[in-house]
Amino acid sequence: MSGMQDNFSRLWTPHRMVYLQNGQQPKDEDCPFCLAPQKAPEDGLVVRKGKTSYVLLNMFPYNAGHLLVCPYRHVDTFDKATQEEVAEIGLLTQQGMRTLQEVSGVHGFNIGMNQGEVAGAGIASHLHQHIVPRWRNDSNFFPIIAQTKAMPKLLGEVRETIEQNWVTHL
């Protein structure tokens, strides 16, 4: 490798290229949020299914246990969701928060929706709400110097733990 040398180690994450290429936006027929609930839960990373909406793990999480709440219906913005979808997205968000608190000892959350590609939506054509668990001192130097997040558990292990311990009481 040519170029300037430095003292930094590198963490190579080539699996993330699928997320970074082609402006990140899949064709509607390839929408991962339409395809996920049709797969086996392990393959789609689905942890909970409701009537109008469902919950899955983010394939490219900010933190371990990063969940996404999506309607089954392919709709791009919150204002186009039905009242039933809005209500169930809210309920599943509450249940997801409780579940993460019980299984992971979460100290806080970042919850939100990026609506549209210019607003940072990784998949702009399908509505999804992020539930990002946060812990005191959960930051380290990786995101700052290497744009990499250290994940203490594999996605499959996290998915199974959340699914098996899903909290339905509020």
Written account of the structure:
This protein has 170 residues and is of the alpha+beta class. It has a single domain, classed as HIT-like (HIT family, subunit A, 2-Layer Sandwich), CATH 3.30.428.10. 28% of the residues lie in helices and 15% in strands. It contains six helices and five strands, in the order αααβββαββαα. Strands 1-2-3-5-4 form a five-stranded antiparallel beta sheet. Strand 1 and strand 2 form a beta hairpin. The longest helix is centred in the middle third of the chain and has 22 residues. The protein is globular, with a radius of gyration of 17 Å.
Primary descriptors:
28% helix, single chain, 6 helices, 170 residues, five-stranded antiparallel sheet
Task: Please sum up the structure shown.
The chain is an alpha+beta fold. The protein is 28% helix and 15% strand.
Q: How are the secondary structure elements laid out?
A:
Elements: H1 17-20, H2 32-35, H3 41-44, E1 46-49, E2 53-57, E3 67-71, H4 83-104, E4 108-112, E5 129-134, H5 142-145, H6 155-164
Antiparallel strand pairs: 1-2, 2-3, 3-5, 4-5
Count of separate DSSP helical elements? 6
CATH overall fold name? HIT family, subunit A
Number of folding domains? Answer: 1
State the CATH superfamily name: HIT-like
Oligomer: single chain
Name the CATH class.
Answer: Alpha Beta
SSE string, helices as H and strands as E: HHHEEEHEEHH
- Calculate the terminal CA-CA distance, rounded to whole Å: 55 Å
Residues in β-strands, percent:
5-15%
Rg, Å, rounded: 17 Å
Share of helical residues: 25-40%
Tell me the overall shape. globular
Largest sheet: 5 strands, antiparallel
SSE class: alpha+beta
Q: Spatial order of the strands in the main sheet?
A: 1-2-3-5-4
Number of strands: 5
